[in-house]
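Quiz preparation item.
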């Protein structure tokens, strides 16, 4: 992971959210307050827009800036959660070029930041249900010697599987938890956006 891939990742997330924001908002209207897509789209579009002006030479600087923009521009639960995640990922990538295993640790640090702030564990029907399997798959592949693109593809596949597995769960964190058993039967919007973020990394890595 270098500065070019970090920029491409954030840019790809912004483009993906432009296409997928209505889907995310539909999911959030079923078990939340219908703002997840518009909020994240605004935040990542703003983050991508600041990057050409950023003077930096590490992926870390790009991702720390991205996290700071998310915290300031995105309301709701997702802004602070993704903001802290990207800042933690960036802090773990303070080098011109990080090997895949270092990116695995950085993504794990992002997961830890979400868990620290949100106190969710797997099965709570949150972003963690996509983030945790995504990180585990990425780590597993890089431990086996896979390159970044291959690890990112496996991580995106695993995150999407985790996303789909939120459908039968009852939410135990965030706004959806207020619905109790009525949250069952709906895919979690945050797990869905996390899967999009992992897929954007795979797409950006494959395009290099
Ligand atoms: P809000 O519910 O404040 O409107 P968003 O709509 O932006 O926030 O985001 C909702 C998503 O945030 C949920 O689908 C869930 O995945 C995630 N989420 C909510 N609370 C938590 C938490 N405590 N830990 C991890 N993720 C959470
Ligand atoms: Mg919401």
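Solution:
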């Amino acid at each position: 992971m270098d500065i070019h891939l970090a920029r491409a990742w954030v840019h790809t997330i912004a483009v993906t959210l432009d296409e997928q924001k209505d889907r995310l908002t539909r999911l959030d209207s079923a078990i939340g307050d219908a703002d997840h897509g518009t909020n994240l789209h605004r935040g990542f579009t703003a983050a991508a827009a600041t990057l050409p002006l950023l003077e930096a030479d590490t992926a870390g600087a790009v991702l720390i800036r991205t996290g700071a923009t998310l915290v300031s521009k995105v309301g709701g639960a997702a802004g602070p959660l993704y903001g802290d995640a990207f800042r933690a990922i960036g802090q773990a990538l303070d080098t011109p070029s990080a090997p895949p295993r270092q990116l695995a640790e950085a993504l794990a640090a992002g997961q830890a930041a979400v868990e620290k702030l949100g106190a969710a564990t797997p099965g709570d029907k949150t972003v963690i249900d996509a983030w945790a399997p995504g990180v585990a798959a990425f780590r597993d592949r890089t431990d086996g010697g896979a390159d970044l693109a291959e690890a990112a593809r496996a991580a995106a596949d695993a995150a999407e599987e985790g996303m789909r597995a939120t459908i039968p769960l009852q939410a135990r964190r965030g706004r959806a938890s207020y619905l109790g058993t009525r949250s069952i039967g709906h895919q979690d919007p945050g797990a869905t956006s996390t899967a999009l973020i992992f897929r954007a990394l795979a797409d950006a890595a494959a395009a290099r």
